[in-house]
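[Discussion] Sanity-checking designs against the backbone

I'm trying to build intuition for which residues belong where. Below is a structure token string of 142 positions. I'd appreciate it if someone posts a full sequence so I can compare it with mine line by line.
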């Protein structure tokens, strides 16, 4: 693996702050990571859905379809952050820092995991509630 030491806390915080664009995956696996490239498109489509809802109101069905993509992308990134932060240091170093000096996660990784859990849980519940509300409203309109 090329590059320097990969820090567990850095990966966790990247997933928390900019994970919706796959930057945590690129940090760990480089720009050739296929999973990392799956993050930007749903994120941008979800942001376009938010913009559409702001411009056209809550009755815009295209926005209904696009906004949950942002939620799913965010939840997936935060789940990655949780996994990174909870990975034991020995296993982390064996996977990402082979032949490098050991890197300990410490409190920054723990705090990142707590924030990922809080924000991820809230986002997951909000995405499910939004999608269910829009689905049932569409059923009434028919």
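Best answer:
Here's mine. Compare freely.
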């Amino acid at each position: 693996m090329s590059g320097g030491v990969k820090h567990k806390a850095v990966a966790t915080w990247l997933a928390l702050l900019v994970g919706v664009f796959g930057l945590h995956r690129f940090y760990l696996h480089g720009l050739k990571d296929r999973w990392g490239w799956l993050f930007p498109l749903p994120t941008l489509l979800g942001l376009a859905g938010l913009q559409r809802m702001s411009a056209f109101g809550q009755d815009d069905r295209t926005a209904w379809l696009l906004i949950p993509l942002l939620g799913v992308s965010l939840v997936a990134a935060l789940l990655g952050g949780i996994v990174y932060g909870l990975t034991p240091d020995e296993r982390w170093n064996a996977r990402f820092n082979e032949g490098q000096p050991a890197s300990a996660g410490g409190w920054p990784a723990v705090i990142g995991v707590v924030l990922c859990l809080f924000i991820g849980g809230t986002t997951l519940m909000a995405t499910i509630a939004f999608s269910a509300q829009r689905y049932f409203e569409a059923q009434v309109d028919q």
